[in-house]
Amino acid sequence: MSRISTRSGVAVAVALAVTTTSGVVGIRAATADSSRARTMNVIYLLGDGMGRTHVTAGRDRFYGADGRLVMETLPAVGQVATYAIGKNSGQPGATDFVPEYVTDSASSATAWASGVKTYNAALGVDGKGAVVPTLMELAKRAGYGTGNVSTAEITDATPASQMSHALARGCQGPEYSAAACQDTEITGSALPTSDIRVTPIADQIARNGTADVILGGGLSRFDAEDEQALKSQGYSILGSPATQAVATRAELSQARGPKVFGLFNKGNLTVERAKRLAPGTPGAAEPSLPELTSKAISLLSRQKRSGKGFYLQVEGALIDKRSHANDAAQTLDEIKAFDDAVKVARDFAAKDRNTLVIVTADHECAGFSIIEQGTITNAEADVPGTGNRDAGNPANSSAASGLPDRAAQSKADARSTGIQNAPGGTPAVPGGAPANNFAPATFRTADDPRSVQDGTPEASLWLTYLSGNHTGEDVPIYASGPRAWRLGGSIDNTDLFDVVGGALGVVR
Ligand SMILES: [Zn+2]
């Protein structure tokens, strides 16, 4: 699907009323005249930082080599290119187009939410800082129920991409700060604080009503004024931004729609592994992603008056955050929790029969790899590698190296203290792996005998990280339901805007 041909297919010229002082709106949206599509639901789930290897490792760990994660049972499968663009870059095809091969969550989320490439850290604006409407805004305007669920702060890049417009993702609130909110490389000089693009994201979310159901973390980004603004729009508020009382699972179970706002932690939600290791702590009492997803679907599907469908975004954010930390044990459990949320969506769709379910990621994180049991990685090897030598035909050698054979590799004591299933990199956690340990983390799989323990050479799933940062590889996509076939093959993350917008009848 080419961006240009898709874009030229945009037919009806009704710009969304996203008011800013600059008032720039780059994308035209179709009017919501397509009642045919109105009863349709879209559940869009993404594992932040979930690359191809994350999925395979999750499969091996929890279901075994011959098993399948729930996401892998969806019939349409493809891969998504995720690149970003530089600041002040034009869109692909323009003469001033400048690609950035590795994206962050903000740029990637803006691509699917608004159909444009943008620079890293940008939300709801294009590469030159112009405000672009989001799918959730368009869906809301067309009468759909809308929901946004995340295990991160709800003001963090992925959820914020659907319900805010910001030059810099760090402008989360509660207070405005020029350092966090302005980007003069885009605007030339500081914008007035009345400009939406430098308005704290929490303030935007609390006032624009873009999502009917808002469930996640990040309570400390909101304050008493935000609570008042939410109440005046009719939101049921779980917990209290004014008193900083976090929402509880009991409040969640009793919540009634149509508009619900519940944040269960002042920051990001608690990782599943930490909950399991510390039962009885406040974090352990937080609802899980599958629970949040189930409640959001229940609230939104109950609003089906006059045949309205809904559009729900669900983010498993901690896959990325724990991958940055090189904590494979936590990462694997977050993949499982995310996949359990996919099961909730799939089971709903199986009954509903008119729901497009999409499962994908925004980018890969940390160069996660599954290596052969017993392998010494280059990072921990005394003398990494053999050079490019072909003993059978010296003409194929690119350089004489004098390096030893792979078989002769040994571990460098300074960089390898042995298998340790604890966060790598820096800083080392107390009692965890030394910061300089580049040895693999090992995990038992569903295929291993019961006697095999995590963190031993006998465990058959050997995992390593390349770094603590994102990579530029394509990410997998799985889909089922109406129009799912359009997501097969190789697509770009901006194509998701067209497919989902088309399914909802808000983009043509
Ligand atoms: Zn990340």
Task: Offer a quick outline of the entry.
The protein has 508 residues and is of the alpha/beta class. The protein is built from 15 helices and 17 strands. The two termini are 14 Å apart.
> What is the spatial order of strands in the main beta sheet?
7-8-6-5-9-1-10-16-2-17
Q: Which structural class fits the helix and strand makeup?
A: alpha/beta
Strand content: 5-15%
Task: Indicate the radius of gyration in whole angstroms.
Answer: 23 Å
Summarize the amount of helix as a percent range: 25-40%
| β-strand number | 17
Q: Can you put this structure into words, describing what you see?
A:
With 508 residues, this protein is of the alpha/beta class. It has helices spanning 3-8, 52-63, 105-114, 135-141, 157-163, 178-181, 184-187, 201-208, 224-232, 249-254, 272-277, 289-301, 318-324, 328-352, 495-504; strands spanning 41-47, 76-81, 84-85, 99-100, 145-153, 213-217, 236-238, 260-263, 310-316, 355-360, 364-365, 369-371, 441-443, 461-464, 470-471, 475-480, 489-492. Helices cover 26% and strands 15% of the residues. Strands 7-8-6-5-9-1-10-16-2-17 form a ten-stranded mixed β-sheet, sandwiched between helices. The chain has 15 helices and 17 strands. Residues 49, 105, 320, 324, 365, 470 line the site of zinc ion.
